[in-house]
Specification:
Largest sheet: 5 strands, mixed
Helix content: 25-40%
Structural class: alpha+beta
Strand order of the largest sheet: 7-6-10-8-9
Strand content: 15-25%
Oligomer: single chain
Number of strands: 10
Shape: elongated
Number of helices: 8
Radius of gyration: 28 Å
Length: 266
């Protein structure tokens, strides 16, 4: 390859590098709900649509406290400990602890509790389960205080987020924005207009694509997560160039070095 051909190659590489600067993404592409105006009322789906419905196999934390110390021991074994510690309550926040100490909804859709027997809970929204158990407790116990939480509410977050992994939620409603916040937010390569939520269903997995750059995301069912959902934050189209930028730089540097050597030899 002669000097003229090297000059031509270097020129082409410089033009390619220059054009690539214009293909770099704008910071506006990372703005969530950028169409929202000041004092705008953002519409969202009704709770009856977004809330999770309890199903057989779900695991619930159930705490029932009353005037009877023996009853308290049945539902709250940690209350018998002479020295209560944070770890005694933390056992419910791990998969192993939830499996061992939680109450599982059986195949018939019932929650089997001491004294009260079978309580039908499947088919009811998560937020109503506590009231259902409270009504049963009032029939058998005096001045009972009931607390119920869903323990197996986990989601898996992968892709262009800073801390991918499995995260647990203990609120009745849970949005994809809250899940991304748990994962410490998205990376600079994230395509927030194409976030995929995969939801396991009895008939197969359902895929939902979310555009988080618009306030209409609140109206999409996948925006409100359910237990065992998978969230994939896809990379944008510019990531390949960013990953190969070092290679481009080495090629240009090598070509420049060859030109310099040919110039000295000439």
């Amino acid at each position: 390859m002669n000097t003229r051909q090297l000059h031509r190659l270097l020129s082409l590489l410089m033009v390619a590098a220059f054009l690539s600067l214009f293909s770099c993404r704008s910071s506006k592409e990372l703005i969530y709900m950028k169409d929202v105006q000041n004092n705008q009322l953002i519409k969202s789906l009704a709770d009856t649509i977004t809330e999770y419905i309890i199903k057989p196999g779900d695991i619930l934390y159930v705490s029932i406290k009353s005037m009877n110390a023996e009853v308290n021991a049945l539902f709250n074994p940690e209350s018998n400990m002479e020295t209560q510690s944070y770890n005694s309550y933390q056992k419910y926040t791990t998969p192993q602890g939830a499996y061992l100490y939680g109450f599982e909804v059986n195949e018939s859709g019932n929650l089997q509790l001491p004294i009260m027997g079978d309580i039908p809970v499947a088919g009811h929204p998560n937020s109503q389960i506590e009231n259902i158990v409270q009504n049963y407790a009032d029939k058998y116990l005096k001045e009972a205080i009931v607390k119920v939480k869903l323990l197996n509410y986990k989601v898996t977050i992968m892709g262009e987020v800073k801390s991918p992994g499995v995260y647990y939620n203990y609120n009745n409603n849970f949005t994809v924005l809250e899940a991304l916040a748990m994962a410490n937010g998205n990376t600079d390569y994230a395509n927030i207009t194409n976030v995929m939520v995969i939801r396991p269903r009895p008939d197969g997995e359902r895929a939902m694509i979310l555009d988080l750059a618009t306030s209409d995301a609140w109206l999409q069912k996948g925006f409100y997560l359910h237990p065992n959902d998978y969230i994939f934050v896809e990379p944008d189209d510019h990531k390949n160039f960013q990953l190969n930028a070092q290679a481009y730089s080495m090629i240009i540097s090598s070509a420049s070095l060859l030109l310099a050597v040919f110039g000295l030899l000439k």
